[in-house]
């Protein structure tokens, strides 16, 4: 029987009388550990019913994070969720699989010698980004000290549409964030006017392979060419980190000829999310460096833990090992051909959806899903004063669809967009159902004879 819910600000959770077993409490504290025990079934039912109120993951078009794996993967997950990734002495086979995975990624991303590089798994791509940023900062510090120069004013150049983890990195590690504003003319960081942001204190440039706001690729080759010109004029040799949270698992399969990875000489490191288009459940990221020389040795710790001596370079210590095994499972399960078909399918659905949205006269596409399977649109200027994209987002939520609406960054903050992320599991049939619901809700809003209220509107989650 379900738990009888009280209001969110209630201090207790009350149980349905039919559900309560003899001797058990009928109310449990919501914010303090209960004094007594409960039966496993009772605790399960409470947590189960709380989680039941979450949205349907298959209809969540806001998140990039994977929400489905097949039966054998789930069985493998259940068999290995007790493994601690950091304990390489106790779980040497899992440690070996981790090395195989990042070596595979180094090859996928055209490292000069995949067996002579270095990488690591992380809890997610945010941790991977921070490790990439730390390596850039430490390499810059070593070079500056060797030249007898100060190291107290490092800066990192990136787009104003950068994911929030980079702002955290700059905040936590005392690096000045130099944000290049995007605009209608320059929708991504593309190398234009880069010389105005780069100086001797620049530790690197971040290029995003799939901007979170819109899904667009930043042109790595053009950015590298701009840095080549800067070096020719000033002598400054500035490396690039690729934030490939999504695109690093899309471009190799959907746009294999696009030069964005280690084929570009300035690319020092690449990070990605295994739990996004790597097709693994949440909790996995990867970072790989061009070669061992790209990662300063003093960022690698060698510690004795639980009887073994092992190197570690992640920010977290104890963390799950199961997701690493799931990534290896997916590499074996799909292979190159399987990944091509899965990613191409998502890409095709995104292009279909973008085309259908483009047909609606109320909207103007910001981009069309040609890069990662993500696209965004905005309301056409002057279409209506009665509703906005936040209202449409709320209407779609009543049908189960989570489609975020939010303002663009900084210089484009007056532009509000909506975005759809197509992941594995959003079939062509489901996409067709979404289009039907979208049309129906737009028609409903267009029939309004007076403006909808705007009080309390706020951006949906989009990072």
Automatic annotation (TrEMBL):
User: Sorted alphabetically, which Pfam families does this protein's record hold?
Assistant: Pyridoxal_deC
EC number(s) stated in the UniProt entry for this protein? 4.1.1.15
Q: CDD domains, per this entry?
A: DOPA_deC_like
Q: Residues bearing N6-(pyridoxal phosphate)lysine?
A: 276
- Which cofactors does it use? pyridoxal 5'-phosphate
Cross-referenced PANTHER family: GLUTAMATE DECARBOXYLASE
> Which biological process terms from the Gene Ontology are attached to this UniProt entry?
L-glutamate catabolic process
Q: Which SUPFAM superfamilies match?
A: PLP-dependent transferases
Picking any one GO molecular function of the record gives:
aromatic-L-amino-acid decarboxylase activity
The cellular component terms of Gene Ontology attached to this UniProt record, alphabetical and capped at eight, are:
cytosol
Can you tell me which family this protein belongs to? Belongs to the group II decarboxylase family.
Identification of the protein by name: Glutamate decarboxylase
Keyword field? Decarboxylase, Lyase, Pyridoxal phosphate
Q: Which reaction does it catalyse?
A: L-glutamate + H(+) = 4-aminobutanoate + CO2
């Amino acid at each position: 029987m379900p738990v009888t819910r009280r209001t969110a600000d209630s201090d207790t959770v009350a149980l349905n009388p039919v559900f309560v077993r003899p001797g058990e409490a009928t109310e449990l504290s919501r914010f303090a550990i209960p004094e007594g025990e409960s039966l496993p079934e009772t605790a399960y039912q409470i947590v189960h019913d709380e989680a039941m109120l979450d949205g349907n993951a298959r209809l969540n078009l806001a998140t990039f994070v994977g929400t489905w794996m097949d039966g054998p993967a789930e069985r493998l997950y259940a068999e290995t969720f007790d493994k601690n990734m950091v304990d390489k002495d106790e779980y040497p086979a899992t440690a070996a699989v981790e090395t195989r995975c990042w070596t595979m990624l180094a090859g996928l991303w055209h490292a000069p010698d995949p067996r002579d590089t270095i990488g690591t798994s992380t809890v997610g791509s945010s941790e991977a980004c921070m490790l990439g940023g730390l390596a850039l900062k430490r390499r810059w510090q070593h070079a500056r000290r060797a030249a007898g120069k100060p190291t107290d004013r490092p800066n990192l150049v990136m787009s104003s549409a950068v994911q929030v983890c980079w702002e955290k990195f700059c905040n936590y590690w005392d690096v000045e964030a130099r944000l290049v504003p995007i605009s209608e003319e320059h929708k991504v960081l593309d190398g234009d006017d880069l010389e105005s942001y780069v100086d001797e204190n620049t530790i690197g440039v971040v290029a995003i392979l799939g901007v979170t706001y819109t899904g667009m690729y930043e042109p790595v080759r053009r950015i590298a060419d701009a840095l080549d010109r800067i070096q020719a004029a000033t002598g400054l040799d500035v490396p690039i980190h690729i934030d490939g949270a999504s695109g690093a698992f899309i471009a190799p399969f959907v746009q294999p000829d696009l030069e964005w990875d280690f084929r570009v000489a300035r690319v020092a490191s690449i990070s990605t999310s295994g739990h996004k288009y790597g097709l693994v459940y949440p909790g996995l990221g990867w970072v790989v460096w061009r070669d061992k020389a790209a990662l300063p040795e003093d960022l690698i710790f060698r510690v004795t833990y639980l009887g073994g001596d092992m190197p570690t370079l992640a920010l977290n210590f104890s963390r799950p090992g199961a997701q690493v095994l799931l990534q290896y499972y997916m590499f074996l399960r799909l292979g190159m051909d399987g990944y091509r078909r899965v990613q191409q399918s998502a890409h095709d659905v995104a292009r279909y959806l973008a085309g259908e949205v483009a047909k609606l006269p109320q909207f103007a596409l910001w981009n069309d899903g040609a890069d990662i399977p993500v696209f965004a649109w905005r309301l056409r200027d002057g279409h209506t004063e009665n509703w906005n994209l936040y209202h449409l987002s709320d209407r779609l939520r009543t049908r189960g669809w989570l489609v975020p609406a939010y303002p663009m960054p900084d210089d484009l903050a007056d532009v509000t967009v909506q975005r759809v992320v197509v992941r594995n599991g959003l079939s062509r049939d489901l996409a067709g159902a979404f289009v039907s619901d979208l049309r129906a809700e737009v028609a409903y809003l267009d029939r309004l004879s007076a403006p909808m209220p705007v009080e309390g509107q706020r951006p949906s989650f989009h990072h």
